[in-house]
Amino acid sequence: MTRDTEKPTAMETLLSTLDLEPIEVDIFRGVSPQVGWQRVFGGQVIAQALMAAQRTVERERLVHSLHAYFMRPGDPSVPIVYQVERIRDGSSFNTRRVVAIQHGHAIFALSASFQIEEPGFDHQIGMPDVPMPETLLDEQQIAAQYLVNAPAPIRKYWERERPIEIRPVSLTHYVSGKKLEPFQHIWVRATGPVPDDRLCQASILAYLSDMTLLDTSLYPHGTSIFDHTLQVASLDHSMWFHRPALFDDWLLYTQDSPSASGARGLTRGSLFTRNGVLIASVAQEGLIRKRANA
Length: 294
Hints:
The protein has 294 residues and is α+β, with helices and mostly antiparallel strands. Helices cover 18% and strands 37% of the residues. It has six helices and twelve strands. It has helices at residues 10-18, 42-54, 139-146, 152-159, 172-175, 198-209; strands at 21-24, 27-30, 61-70, 80-89, 93-102, 105-116, 164-168, 183-190, 230-241, 251-261, 264-273, 278-290. Strands 1-2-4-5-6-3-9-12-11-10-8-7 form a twelve-stranded antiparallel sheet.
């Protein structure tokens, strides 16, 4: 299949969605790509809200953490308004709160903290020993070899062009209903050039941090987010930015789910460079509920 050269790539579309329109002081408007989704991808809202917050802080002060809550599904057919509140501007740290609004209601809220770069103690956990991405099947090979008879939602997920390519170390969860240990390792990379800009890189890292995370909490139960008998949705999301993120190579996203209870699943994630540098840590709790009429 040949690409329509007039059509933007998935990465170009993502970068466009991050280029928020300023409509007043500390108020921005963002749009969603029209790709047929019924609701806005959570990673997009995180990334846009972070970008809005970053645009109200001096460029040399970089995000080191964010904490967010999803309150309502986002409507991809209308813009999202992001209102930024300047909570604190200190000598070393800045704090911002962002509320995303659609149809007169808050759909999402994010708090982020920024810091000037400074030296200090430095240590990190080690990266797991996993196969390198070049030894794994790419998305086209996965679709051709394993998804011929897969349900339509799974095929659509793998066949759609995305700004972030994923290569799971194991495909067992995607091709069977086997109950597995709550661990997942996935290689991820940008499918197009990412600007040499720390603000943009942080937002794209936040975007991809929401990919596949909730699904890990379903591993022990032999099901997935594609199960139509389940109601699944992100509830909250936290992220810590440890070191600069470059997108010129693969990143390893390691995930584990320590607990599921009360119709909620908790998953933790670590993002490493190929050579084992830990660049970010993530935690998310999501709704994993059996539908009443299932």
